[in-house]
Design brief:
Blueprint lengths: L2 H34 L2 H10 L1 H20 L2 H11 L10 H29 L7
Helix pairs in contact: 1-2, 1-3, 1-5, 3-4
Length: 128
């Protein structure tokens, strides 16, 4: 895969990382608001979480579009990297490292979101 394609994908993965961290921060604040029974702050934070969610969607869309413009072999390799495959070349290493970091932040976000959702919705939680 060309260096420019790797760099473009890495830029999008950095954007995803930033958006995930923003969402994680807002979700932490939501957990605090739930613990304080602060419904006003919670409503504000729920609306604030939309912005990083939109950023995530945009970065994922850009990655999908990039994959569509690459030759089939490169598109398949990019898809494999994005699914967590290890680097095959030294040039892919930063990209695979960023994928790993993003997966860890996403895992933290999901775990915290589950806690907040269970506290708010109790038996009606979307998480079983």
């Amino acid at each position: 895969m060309e260096a420019s394609a790797l760099m473009d994908a890495h830029v999008q993965l950095k954007r995803i990382y930033t958006a995930l961290n923003e969402a994680l921060d807002v979700t932490r604040q939501m957990a605090d608001a739930v613990d304080r029974d602060d419904e006003v702050a919670l409503q504000l934070l729920v609306s604030m979480r939309q912005e990083p969610t939109d950023k995530l969607a945009g970065a994922h869309q850009a990655l999908a579009q990039q994959g569509g413009t690459l030759p089939p072999a490169d598109a398949a390799r990019l898809a494999a990297i994005l699914k967590g495959e290890p680097a095959e070349t030294e040039a892919e290493a930063p990209l695979t490292a960023q994928v790993g970091v993003n997966q860890r932040v996403l895992k933290q976000l999901v775990e915290l979101d589950q806690v907040v959702n269970r506290k708010l919705a109790r038996e009606k939680s979307i998480y079983k």
